[in-house]
Amino acid sequence: MVARVIPVDPFDLVIFGGTGDLAKRKILPGLYRRFLAGQMPPEARIIAAARSEMDDAGYRALAGASLAEFVSKSKQDEKAIGEFLERLHYVTIDATGEGGWKALKGLMRKGVVRAFYFSVAPSLFGDLAERLHSHGIADGESRIVVEKPFGRDLASARALNAVLAEHFNEEQIYRIDHYLGKETVQNLMAVRFANVLFEPLWNAQYVDHVQITVAETVGVGGRGAYYDKSGAMRDMIQNHLMQLLCLIAMEPPYHFEPNAVRDEKLKVIRALEPVPAEDIVRGQYRAKPANGGAAEPSYAEDVDNPQSRTESYIALKARVANWRWQGTPFYLRTGKKLRARTSEIAIVFKEAPHSIFGEEESWRANILAIRLQPNEGMNLSVMIKEPGPGGMRLTDVPLDMSFADALGEDGMDIPDAYERLIMDVIRGNQTLFMRGDEVEAAWAWTDPIIEGWESRGDRPKGYDPGSSGPEDALMLLHRDGRRWREIRG
Ligand code: BG6
């Protein structure tokens, strides 16, 4: 199956922080892949703005090196890369002063979509928004894109929202949560709302519990300064896992339209109950001894803070207090340096009310597992009779649907989250972006949880790199008569 590509309108995309890590790893490679796919019109232009002194040629060389490093070899087409680089321009800019703003204004064209990507520290959002206005560069039609972390608590998120609201209205603000740009995440909505099969079962009567796992094998080395002030709760749960929970738990929106979808997600966040201390397990990875291989530092060494109480792992039991989900817990867990890199949502259905096959052949639950990565797809385990003459013995088999296998011989080319989201900004579609009130509601749920462990002085439990996390996390489910799914790559 060939992906349908509809070119977007001509645009000027300004990337503040254009020489930064995100631009190099994600934004530029993502834009190049869209260019290669034919989605970027010939008139599209990308203007990088940053503090370093550089000219267009210098920036093109830097961008070329990023593409060589972060675009897969199979997509590196020399001619296309050359044409793409021609679209790049560079302006040296002083975000907190006046330098460079006139030059930027001079580069902007009339009659094309104007988008401004704030790939900079949140402390600069206000300065950028203010100068875009005072220099007449942004207008009522312009769009701004902001990255996480969107605040570190409710008060700071409110302050950021207020700063942006001084110059832009909500319809112009695109808050990125890149998990919403992942193919499977959107497919989740398609599966739920375009099939009659699942929706009747999608409630506490039939769903025993939901597990959401985002496991990573990497540590925090290199990002220690940011991460140690954040931790897994702020870095992952408050945004990515919360968004996944919302898509599973929300009511059908009346239309696949930005505010309709976001209204339903907001209701879920507001229905989340406070989480008591006994429903939370935090962990911190230990050092890995050499044992023949290379030794690896502990979390505390990685962040250079021997006293750190920040969690690199967290598991918690969330409850959505509404009619649909009363009594169905949502277990969330995420962590660094775990056994495998895998992100998965598992809907674990209840057992059949009565087994006609006898005690020994007791029914195992049906599970709908939605894999975000790697190998995006869905898998529904169903019970069947074990083949052969051995009588009525039951076994569970997967009805497996890998998106890549299902959609084409070599798999359809699945766009990366960033490239999809940037194209949505140009198209003016906010469905996959977080609204200001959603972010604030998410912090309103998160804040008391963090304040709780801070006031108690809780220390995270140690866990070994390459494990499934701290032992105590197993208990979180065991005591409810359930168990975590295995973390497998
Ligand atoms: C980021 C977090 O938002 O998401 C990182 O700050 C994390 O700590 C990353 O590693 C995970 O994203 P992905 O797409 O690799 O699962």
Put the structure in a nutshell.
The protein is α/β, with parallel strands linked by helices and 489 residues long.
Task: Describe the structure in your own words.
It is a single chain. The chain has 489 residues and is an alpha/beta fold. It is 34% helix and 19% strand. It has helices at residues 21-36, 56-70, 78-86, 101-107, 125-134, 154-165, 183-193, 224-227, 231-249, 258-271, 299-302, 403-407, 417-427, 436-456, 471-478; strands at 11-16, 45-50, 88-92, 113-118, 143-146, 173-175, 207-215, 280-285, 313-318, 330-335, 342-349, 367-373, 377-385, 394-402, 461-463. A nine-stranded mixed β-sheet has the order 14-13-12-11-7-10-9-8-15, with helices on both faces. Strands 3-2-1-4-5-6 form a six-stranded parallel β-sheet. Helix 1 packs across helix 13 (417-427), helix 9 crosses helix 10 (258-271) and helix 9 packs across helix 14 (436-456). 40% of the residues are buried. The structure holds 6-O-phosphono-beta-D-glucopyranose.
